[in-house]
Amino acid sequence: MKTYSTIGTLFLLLSSFSGLEAQSWRFPDCRDLFIIKVELPISTEDKMYISVANQCDTCQQHAYTGLRVYLGADTLAVEDVLFTKPSPENNAIYRYELYAQGQFDFTESLRVEMVAGLCDSLSFAPDWITSTDDLSKTLEIQVFPNPSQGQFRIRTMDAVRVKATRLYDAAGRLVRSWTHLPEKIDLRGAAKGIFWLHVLTDKGEAGRKLVRL
Predict the structure, then answer these.
(1) Closest C-alpha to 125, from 34, 28, 11, 32
(2) Burial of residue 87 (number of CB atoms within 10 Å: 0-12, 13-18, 19+)
(3) Which long-range contacts does 108-112 make (Cβ < 8 Å, 24+ apart)?
């Protein structure tokens, strides 16, 4: 009788650990995937590029069959994918290459879908959009998710030396300052609204708008 009791206890413990392990990961979805840069083609022969960030810490990669840009029922751009490919890795950024069906303005009325993935409408902000010929003039400071409930991640894909980083509120008051580029900014204790991030580097200065929801 004691042996059966011991086996039963071990079984329950193993089941509990298995349940905890199963709940510790999930596939990335619209809560985790954000468009942080859109590079528009300057001619119908050029490709367009969309950079997507995955802010999840414990997600499993999920297979999808390409990125597509829609305006209503019309397809404006597609990623040339022959087979399925994985979504971006955790806390990573991936730059997708798409073929545009023609020239168009990238506005908030467009929808970007990760086809056969777990997000049918990736969020983006208009100030992340640039044309492909402006890339050499743009210091690439990335803020995501944006808008956010208060937690922002900051990244740069350029090899630069940051001299100073300053955060201002909508009234132009200095909120915080750093002598480096912080990886995270926590505004959960701040009032909702718009903040401005200014980054001074050895290659120039960049500014980004942060929206605290």
Answers:
(1) 34
(2) buried
(3) 109/71, 110/69, 110/70, 110/71, 110/76, 111/69, 111/70, 111/71, 112/35, 112/50, 112/67, 112/68, 112/69, 112/70
Fold of 25-134: Immunoglobulin-like (2.60.40)
Enter the tokens of residue 198.
């200014």
The superfamily CATH assigns to domain 139-213 is: Macroglobulin (MG2) domain (2.60.40.1930)
Of 141, 182, 189, which is closest to residue 164 (Cα–Cα)? 182
DSSP state string for 22-87: HHT-----TTTEEEEEEEE-SSTTSEEEEEEEE--SSPPP-EE--EEEEETTEEEEEE--SS-EEP
> How deeply is 13 buried, as exposed, middle or buried, from its count of CB atoms within 10 A (0-12, 13-18, 19+)?
exposed
- Strand-pairing partners, residue 79, are 98
Express each pLDDT in 100-153 by its tens digit. Answer: 877 777 777 888 998 877 788 888 766 556 555 443 345 678 888 989 999 999
pTM score, whole prediction: 0.56
The residues pairing with 212 across neighbouring beta strands, listed in sequence order, are: 148, 193
Q: Are 73 and 20 in contact (CB under 8 A)?
A: no
Find the length of the chain: 213
Q: Hey, where are the domains in the chain?
A: 25-134, 139-213
